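Changelog-adjacent note: as of this version, every example in the card shows the full chain rather than a window. The one below runs 318 residues end to end.
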Amino acid sequence: MKLRHIFILSCLIFGLLCPIWAKPLRSEKIVFSSDRDGNWEIYLMNPDGTRQERLTYDRAVDCEPVISPTGDRILFTSNRGGTRDLYLMDVDGRNVRPLFGVSEAYRTEPAWSPDGKKIAYSQRDFGGINIHTASADGKLVKPIERLKSAHSGYPNWSSDGREIAFVVADEIHWASRQIRFINLETDEQETLFPDDFPRMFQPAYSPVDDKIAFVWFRPAAKQQSIFVVNRDGSHLKRIESLVANTPAWAPSGDELIYTEGVIGSNSQIYKINLITHKATQLTDDGSNYSSNWFSPRQLPVSPSPSLLSTLWSDVKIQ
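Full-length structure tokens:
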């Protein structure tokens, strides 16, 4: 009986000292933000629009959520600390904490690296908005682009982690928006359609890196559409011709989710099959904005601590 009490006490102490890891997602999920309950909060749903579940409960604006490649954390933007900044929470909505601790700054538009070890984001500093990267714990911060007379935003990682696509604003003229790529190993940059005067934004790499989805507003046509193009700029194709934005790829690469809005009406999340061109509405309550589509198949080769378990054996009590 005494040994049993000692064993139970040891288990209790071990449980208090060690964190309880959130269980990672085991199925595909879409994370998004919505104001359906009177405030912008973060939600999860199945890829077919079923089981829409609210995760955050705060009077602040919670938006731009992205699920970690390990499926156990969500990185998002919130002004719950006063300034719009980046926060982390477990995938079940618990354990909300600021990513950078007390080092508050205006940070938005977060994106995970494919291995989950780094993030990219936009930060307002030095009179402008520029792209930064950081380790997943909020340390090892590095600016990757500082523009003197322009701004940069909407970072998105390639699936091999070697490149980031982002948007350069106001460099050609006050309304210009160009998509640019930066090689993280060489710092070399390349502009998509460099000879054009576009208003392009929100680039998103396909899972196999051979295509880019993005939003293009064309003043002459008075139309904001989603386009898909090969990484080298060839085979440009319009996918959606309405007031669409925030494209994100399905893990299979044959579907996109996007947000469609009409002036004077709420915005809703749609899914479109790139082969059949069939569009399906996934939300219908309040205004909603898509963020990203997670699949367990995207997990990195090296396991995260949340996916590890400890094996206790051969316990001896002297």
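Structural remarks: DSSP finds one helix and 24 strands in the chain.
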